[in-house]
Amino acid sequence: MIQVDSHHHVWRVARGDYGWLTPDLPIYRDYMLDDLRPLLGEITATVLVQAAPTEAETAFMLTVARDSRGVVRGVVGWTDLAAPNAAARVVDLARAPELKGLRPMLQGIADTDWILRPAAQPALVAMTQCGLRFDALIKPHHLPNLLSLAARHPRLPIVIDHAAKPAIAYGAFDPWADDIARVARETGAHCKLSGLVSEAVPHWQHDDLRRTTDHLIACFGPARLMWGSDWPVVELAGGYTRWRAATDHLLAGLDVPGRDAILGGTACIFYGLGEAA
């Protein structure tokens, strides 16, 4: 079974549109695909995800994918879904075979209901018609709105990035656990097993993550759960290699087909990665 990193970034600081990436952060430097390759091990395919709310970054990522010699099999880009011409922009962006989805940076938008505004609905319809996926970059308080989004657009494939960022370090299991279980039960949404170490205590151990990962496996099952590194952000929370090793430990109780699904099969199916091989 192919192994996939379903969620990583690259960036070149001089491009200047990463508003959240400030000089005080240890990851304030360029991170490109050649920096990631030595960490991949048996992983042979990746999904490159936007880190800046600009179409210029989407074009940059598409170039990285085309030059990756088959490693980056899919790109999740960005366009302003509430712009007056958003539907047309979605159709235009979808012409790139490497583009598999779009991601508004909902976690940073003050209005929790932004994605439910009338202005965003034509773009979401266009995404569905173009076969694009919706990456939901959200926090726990957005989960109830995800139910509404899925009800309005039942054919739009949705994946929850970083499991909606549960506050693991603070032991805040509920109401996140109940809300994400309801999303899993009442919608066809998928979920990424990614970003969890960034929400844990700085010197996290496997058991700090187990309650959360066990809950996600129970809610979504391996067929709707996919592993991602969130590199290079993960370098702030133990690093790529440590997170990957922890994943192997946390998934040890699953059978081989279940582990294969989470570590690659689910992402291949959800994102249609074979189309850009």
Walk me through the structure.
The protein has helices at 33-36, 55-66, 86-93, 121-130, 143-152, 176-186, 206-220, 240-250, 256-271; strands at 4-8, 45-49, 72-77, 99-102, 133-136, 158-160, 190-193, 225-227. The protein starts with a strand and ends in a 6-residue tail after the last helix. It has an 8-stranded parallel β-sheet with strand order 1-2-3-4-5-6-7-8. The longest helix is centred in the C-terminal third of the chain and has 16 residues, at 256-271. The radius of gyration is 17 Å and the shape is globular. The chain contains 9 helices and 8 strands. The protein has 277 residues and is of the alpha/beta class. Helix 3 packs parallel to helix 4, helix 5 (143-152) runs parallel beside helix 6 and helix 6 (176-186) packs parallel to helix 7 (206-220). It has a single domain, classed as Alpha-Beta Barrel (TIM Barrel).
